[in-house]
Amino acid sequence: MRQLFPGKKFFLSAGAFLAGAVLMGQPAISQAQQNTPSVPPASVSDSSSAPQRLNRARALAAAHNLNAAATELDAIRTSTTDNSVRDLARVLLMSIYLEQSDQGRTFQLLDEAFNARNAADEGTSRVYFALAGQVVKGTRERLNRYREFGFNVADRDLPSDAENDLNRLRASLEKVIVQAKNIADDNPLGTDALALLEDAAMVRCGLARNEQERGRWQNECSIARLQLTDGESRVAAIKATDPSQRKVERAKQNQPTNGTWSQPIIDPDLARDAVTANSTIASNSNPVRPAPTVVKTAIVRSKNDPADLVNVGSLFELATKKVAPGYPSMAKSARITGMVKVEVVVDQEGNVVEAKGTSGPEVLRSAAVDAAKRWKFKPKTVDGQNVRSTGYINFNFTL
Q: What's the CA gap between 323 and 374, in Å, rounded?
């Protein structure tokens, strides 16, 4: 997968929600935690405000009192009529279930959000992509943890605990992939689902047990990437010819912001090279889905290969147009602040063609990515020729 997501609200739509949310880790409970008494949840009649109760739940999760945090969040979900509070509670619950390796409840939250999607309410889709994004992100981090401890996930003699955990991770990713395909089939012009599919397939490739399985998921990833590129081109063509779409884009660029967005902080230490993905298609594996009709031969990356990108680090000084992000109401009500780093790919004309929030509070990432996609830059030149480049923008959200 291209490390940066092409044109997504995501997956971001963010496309994952909350900084400080508990990530996937060891399911074992420490002796200190066993000796720590559980904190009872606030009752439904508690007079404290929803943000206070959410902060309390977050504090319990940060202290690794996960059962008490989950109980509190369940109580918030059932007692509140505020959809933004309920959605944030679901996102926090997903973090806890991933931390506890509770696959049953993880699947339950995913299915609940997937089935609740409503074309007339964009917020319902954002919630699903946030939850699915957490699953993908958490799985990637768990995979990296195995590598840090010196394990090869393809080994056949792994301890049973590790093998069972890895199988749960594989099943979770495959569930996300199936759901992303269904969403993509329902909305061929939508790019969020394809971006999610591409990312999930690439992580699933990293969990492959053998070369044949790896080839299958590399194929899935490459097909999703091509479909994504094709879908973005069609959307761009529609926007270029449809006056109503141009009005929508102008309205989005001029939309007011809520809260305060300060000038991005430039941190050269945060710069890193874009990660390239192996897009070679194994000749002995068959694609799970039919390739798009534009594919006539083997999938080959050429001039748009990420390897050809020039990494310029911070892009702030090269910007010719800057757009401040809106402050998500959910984050504002919970008083969530922080810096979001967005990695972008800029084409030869200075337009952002890919954007992905890679760090910072996840509930703020979607807004930062949406804003970053509307920035314009002075094209990077090499030997007098404009080239594609990659870099990052930092957005600092404060209240």
A: 6
